[in-house]
TrEMBL record:
Transmembrane segments: none annotated. GO terms for molecular function: GTP binding; GTPase activity. Its main location: cytoplasm. Belongs to the FtsZ family. This is Cell division protein FtsZ. It comes from Candidatus Amphirhobacter heronislandensis. InterPro entries: Cell_div_FtsZ, FtsZ/CetZ, FtsZ_C, Tub_FtsZ_C, Tubulin/FtsZ-like_C, Tubulin/FtsZ_2-layer-sand-dom, Tubulin/FtsZ_GTPase_sf, Tubulin_FtsZ_GTPase. Essential cell division protein that forms a contractile ring structure (Z ring) at the future cell division site. The regulation of the ring assembly controls the timing and the location of cell division. One of the functions of the FtsZ ring is to recruit other cell division proteins to the septum to produce a new cell wall between the dividing cells. Binds GTP and shows GTPase activity. Homodimer. Polymerizes to form a dynamic ring structure in a strictly GTP-dependent manner. Interacts directly with several other division proteins. HAMAP family: FtsZ. The gene is ftsZ.
């Protein structure tokens, strides 16, 4: 195999990862994480100006009320400027939260008050300390009339976060259609935020004979340029070939070419008693064949006896240079080499199941201007947000 592929041996030292849910949407996301498989592996915090909202946070998440002098514990409504003031008022509390972290996830809903106004303040403190910072945020439905506020929040956040995972609620509605009510729709958005964080943490924390460790994640996530993340799962005949193609082929991902990636992080999970070296080689050759010859590829294999015949693969690609605008989409619904797609019955994964694996827009601190991108539906431009321009602090 190409010498740029790095086989990472098991590392017993655990990275110190902290997850901070900011505002109502961020609090809902950390609530979902507290109930998930990563409970106990991460330090989780809920930060809000609304004391009542903090009462709903699960045990296992530390509750941090900010801006009592500004909001009196009653929240700031949609006034993100007051939320920023609240965060700066309690900057010492924020510094205490992030102290000692190797990596910080910031989860928030954009378009309202606290999440929009306070998130970038937290990210800026992380930047000052050299902490790898990944923001995971939702964009409001177009009918909510909060798009301009959301763009301000994302623009501010992009100045300080290494990468931003953006989950547009309109896209979630496309995936789930008319099958669920409004409350369930917001629950799905919160779950997607949670699963995006969990997906990256699983890469770092899940043990295996060949591990991708935190240093590899940091190397990949710190690459200047755009980034994307995808997941796939396949069973049965030719599963390795189909899984590898499914994770790199996304019909709606226009304007981004994996061949331009400067960093690839690949994590394969399988029952290693039922997973051959031939399959490992096949999957990595397919993925390596789509990337630039000089790209660094970090590759890990994790053991999960419960998967049986199923292979799962997660791919994070960074340092992408695009000739057009990147799509910000779910990575579900891709097609494998057999044309059936990873959502086929053999995989047991539906398009909805994979809606929880959004693509990433990276805003690496050392880069220049980036575009947030447009959602594409059958080649039709649904939305063209303003350009996000990075500024050095």
């Amino acid at each position: 195999m190409n010498s740029n592929i790095n086989f990472i041996e098991e590392n017993k030292t655990r990275a110190r990862i902290k997850v901070i849910g900011v505002g109502g949407g961020g609090g809902n996301a950390v609530n979902a994480m507290a109930a998930g498989s990563l409970d106990g592996a991460l330090s989780m915090y809920a930060v809000n100006t609304d004391a009542q909202a903090l009462d709903n946070i699960r045990e296992g998440c530390e509750r941090i009320q900010i801006g009592h002098k500004v909001a009196g514990g009653l929240g700031v409504g949609a006034d993100y400027a007051r939320a920023e003031e609240a965060a700066r008022q309690d900057i010492d509390r924020i510094d205490e939260i992030i102290d000692g972290a190797d990596m910080v996830f910031i989860a928030a809903g954009m378009g309202g008050g606290t999440g929009t106004g306070a998130s970038h303040v937290i990210a800026s403190r992380c930047q000052d300390r050299g902490i790898l910072t990944v923001a995971v945020v939702t964009k409001p439905f177009s009918w909510e009339n909060r798009g301009k506020n959301a763009e301000v929040g994302i623009d501010n956040l992009s100045r300080y976060a290494d990468s931003i995972i953006i989950v547009p609620n309109d896209r979630v509605a496309e995936v789930y259609g008319d099958e669920i009510n409004l409350r369930q729709m917001f629950v799905h958005s919160d779950t997607i935020l949670s699963n995006a964080v969990s997906g990256i943490c699983d890469i770092i924390y899940t043990p295996g004979h060949i591990n991708v460790d935190f240093a590899d994640v940091k190397a990949v996530m710190s690459e200047t340029g755009q980034a994307m993340m995808g997941t796939a799962a396949e069973k049965g005949v030719d599963r390795a070939n189909r899984a590898a193609h499914a994770v790199i082929e996304c019909p709606l991902l226009e304007g981004i070419e994996l061949a331009n990636a400067r960093g690839l992080l690949v994590n394969i999970t399988a029952d290693q008693d039922n997973f051959s070296m031939k399959e490992v080689t096949e999957m990595m050759e397919i993925i390596r064949g789509t990337s630039a010859s000089g790209a660094q590829v970090f590759f890990g294999v994790c053991d999960n006896k419960e998967l049986g015949d199923e292979i799962r693969i997660t791919l994070v690609a960074t340092g992408l240079r695009s000739s057009g605008r990147p799509s910000i989409i779910s990575s579900g619904g891709g097609k494998g080499a057999n044309g059936s797609g990873r959502s086929g019955a053999s995989a047991g994964y539906s398009r909805k199941a994979h809606a929880a694996a959004p693509s990433i827009v990276s805003t690496n601190r050392e880069g220049g201007a980036i575009s947030q991108g447009s959602l594409l539906n059958g080649g039709r431009d649904e939305e063209t947000p303003a350009m996000l321009r990075r500024q050095h602090s």
